[in-house]
Amino acid sequence: MTFTSLPGGTWTLGDLTVTRFGYGAMQLAGPWVMGPPADHDGALAVLREAVELGITHIDTSDAYGPQVTNQLIREALHPYPESLHIVTKVGANRDQRGGWPPARDPESLRRSVRENLQNLGLDVLDLVNLRLGDAEGPQPGSVAQAFETLVDLQQRGLIRHLGLSNATPEQVAEARTIAPIVCVQNMYNLAHRQDDALIDALADQGIAYVPFFPLGGFTPLQSSALQAVAARLGAAPMSVALAWLLQRSPNILLIPGTSSTTHLRENIAGAGLTLREDDLAELDRVGR
What we know:
Elements: E1 10-13, E2 16-19, E3 23-24, H1 40-52, E4 57-59, H2 68-77, E5 85-90, H3 106-120, E6 125-131, H4 144-155, E7 159-165, H5 169-178, E8 183-187, H6 196-204, E9 208-212, H7 220-233, H8 237-248, H9 261-271, H10 277-284
Parallel strand pairs: 3-4, 4-5, 5-6, 6-7, 7-8, 8-9
Antiparallel strand pairs: 1-2
Helix pairs in contact: 1-2, 3-4, 7-8, 8-9
């Protein structure tokens, strides 16, 4: 499998060209995204396989583990290929119970950027997403202080590009009055279509949208509908969900995660499934 055979082609994040099919490193950490992986060598193998298959977009965060996934990425891939771009997130820490308490005060953000640089073995981070909201999803509120802190670090040469994660449309608009953003990373899938208007607006503005939890939060009825379409196509539900996302809009970038090289290949192959107009119409009713 070569670079050109990855489903979806490429997208440009500022001056960074990435494959629309990327890889999310969250699952490389231990249970509940805490501690080291059960299979250390297997985790390294997945990262190396992703790059060998042509993926040029890896999504991570120093909060995963914490620090575990970034250290694995460095061990597996450093020195990094020139074509590889690593996207990270700041704005949340981990507590001893596995929670994700916010850490968006200026000092916490500066410390998190420094730790990401150190653990990834980089002098500059390609793209940093500011994580907002909480475990329940986006929450209203100004992003100005936190985002301005990241803009300052960008101006100091530690960050190339900025984005938002778990953000409301109003927060996206506010951030863009402060500095350009190149992506928004929110929960979105067939069953959770709350960002439909935002995706279309961002596409018009050349800004990427990166959905997480492509199969998260489906009701039993919605799952049954997806499974019915998948069965008719002779495909797995995950394959159909990923393919639908790629066909939903050209600015959608995928970051499905896995700790298995076999599953990684299956995800890539599944996302390349071509859905017909009648398939798309039936799937569109899943989230309505």
